[in-house]
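Problem 12. The chain below contains 351 residues. Write out its predicted structure in token notation.
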Amino acid sequence: MARYRVGIIGCGGMGRSHAKAWSGKPQVELVAVADINEEAARRLAQEFSVPAVYTDYREMLEKEELDIVSIPTWQGVRAEITVAAAESGVKGILGEKPMAASLGEADDMIEACERNGVKLAIGHQRRFYPQNVEMRRLVAEGAIGQPLFVYHRAKPNAGLLNTGSHAIDEWRYILSDPETLWVIGQVSRTTDRWERRTRCEDLCMGLVCFEGGTRGIYEGDLPEPAVRMPKVVGTEGKLDVGEGGVVLLHRDGEAGWREITPPPVETDQYQELIDWIEGKVPEHRSSGRQARYTMEIMMAIYESLRIKNVVVMPLRTRESPLDMMVEDGILPVLKPGRYDIRTPFPEQTGP
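Solution.
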């Protein structure tokens, strides 16, 4: 069995998750970890018996002859690290979500990986959830007719790039990864709000039109009351998720909901990256190419406010439109004092 030398860059909570997953793969040897916080890197290395610890990821890439790199860092630095890893000679890279902090950064990541023959996957693990795999199958087979809309209301105080990346990517997967036609969005940012050192909106709303006319409705931190809606609504029925991950199917004209226990998914994002490298699958279901679509939709929600219009895809703006609006004074901070909703700034005492 082939052996893959794996290194991890970013040794926080998600770094631990990646380390645990890679350590369970018989084809893998976890050989190095890197983090600017040496204590965090050494703690992770000790827990998983990793022999090499670095505070400079470039030194790790140069010395360790890695085959695969996991990059579970904050999104603001992930593009730079991904490009460096792609140029170091690795075979595969697994990043986390959101893919990057702007569409231009996502494009840079994809270009560097394609130029160097590197397989790039992004950690949208919901594509491996049994209920989502089953709903994708049911939608594709016409169990609810033509999909009309998908819906997500984000948990409070989370941010579009943080939770929207999961929700929007989940929509696309369930709908068999359709093209995006247009997006319209509204955003408010009157406080100096950040999420893992990337600017974050106070609230937002997005309406996404996919090919075929299916609409995606995203609500982030909007006022109550909330509306309970099924996961997917079609011309002939509805799909939702029930207790314990069962899929709920309601067909128009039938009484009640039918419960479907989805079969287990016999792989995960880590194994599928190995299988992609080995040519056993044509593409990772969470490839960088697919993750870019999710980034494009999120950036288009911001861009819609910036241009005060519908954004017809493809989006051409490389920079984060949210950053552009803040820096141009379109979204002025009315309540001074920057604060990060995930990892407080050193001076932060509260929002």
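Discussion. Residues 288-307 form the longest helix (20 residues). Students who got a different answer should revisit the alignment rule from Section 12.3.
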